[in-house]
What we know:
Layout: H1 7-19, E1 23-28, E2 33-38, E3 79-81, E4 84-86, E5 90-96, H2 103-115, E6 120-122, H3 139-153, E7 156-160, H4 167-173, E8 176-179, H5 187-194, E9 199-203, H6 210-222, E10 228-232, H7 250-257, E11 262-264, H8 266-270, H9 276-285, E12 290-294, H10 312-328, E13 332-333
Parallel strand pairs: 5-6, 5-12, 5-13, 6-7, 7-8, 8-9, 9-10, 10-11, 11-12
Antiparallel strand pairs: 1-2, 3-4
Helix pairs in contact: 2-3, 5-6, 9-10
The structure holds phosphoenolpyruvate (PEP) and manganese (II) ion.
Phosphoenolpyruvate (PEP) is lined by residues 98, 124, 128, 180-182, 203, 233, 268.
Amino acid sequence: MKHTATKENIDDAIARVESLGLKPNVIEGSERTVIAAVGDERIAGIESLESCPGVDEVMPIVAPYKLASSELKPEPSVITAGSLTVGGGHVGVIAGPCSVESEDQIVATAFAVKKSGASALRGGAFKPRTSPYSFQGMKEEGLKLLATARDQTDLAVVTEVVSPDDVELVSKYADVLQIGARNMQNYRLLEAAGKSPCAVLLKRGPSATIDEWLLAAEYILDAGNPNVMLCERGIRTFESHTRFTLPLASAPYVQERTHLPIVMDPSHGTGHASLVPAMSRASIAAGADGLIIEVHPNPDKALSDGYQSLNFDQFAETMAGCQKIAAAMDRTLGAL
Ligand code: PEP
Ligand code: MN
């Protein structure tokens, strides 16, 4: 819309988009309002929108993903969920164990990561494990323990949902729904998360291309949830010394292509606790909007992913290093 367009002009244009059988999605930018007309691009009559009062120009979005594209919204999106803010010059830090294991474990971890400046608490209650014989998580009991930890620390809770049927239950306890790497292309789950009031952290599948990942984000946006954060957690390559390969270039690349913030996961991205501090700092230097880091009171005893989890002291040191890089990058980091 022209920057002089009135509210009436905007409402009329929205009605015209609807009458063409397209779905209007209104994005209010700092300069002007953009109406995304989403749907089948072969629909006839799109040119007729040009004659609507207040319309500046009608242009196709070239990227396969539309609502996620920076063509639609050039300003980066800032996502806030409780104590967590990601983007807009602020690096949010999500920290906590791979899995919730007990009240003592999750509450002690919440206090420790908060003391070191984390913005939010992570912890899996529903765990998607490679083997059916591995620990599958504490399920609803784990969600309750996360809520207890939030009550005591005021940290926002980030936790995974593995099935569309569980979205409603997990949304009752979580501030951010994590969609795991193994579920990135579970389209029914993406649609269900798109209807949740919670923000969503969408992990990249280890063998997904960036376009596939952004199209997965598009499912959530298209279902009505604008609060999507992308999470680069490493991809599978021929290299076997690290668990996955963490592509740092994903951060600046997706920031060029989309307005969605990107959170880097150096824990799953390397699979080695000793590599996490350096890759956390490198992620911030590459411009990431957030970090998600596994932290456990006693990594040797963890029920999942202990080998890549930091203990409390290691996390405190990692945060101190990250603060220096964030300052050099003119960013703020962690708890606000
Ligand atoms: C996790 O965050 O513990 C997890 C299972 O991650 P991913 O889906 O990236 O493997
Ligand atoms: Mn894990």
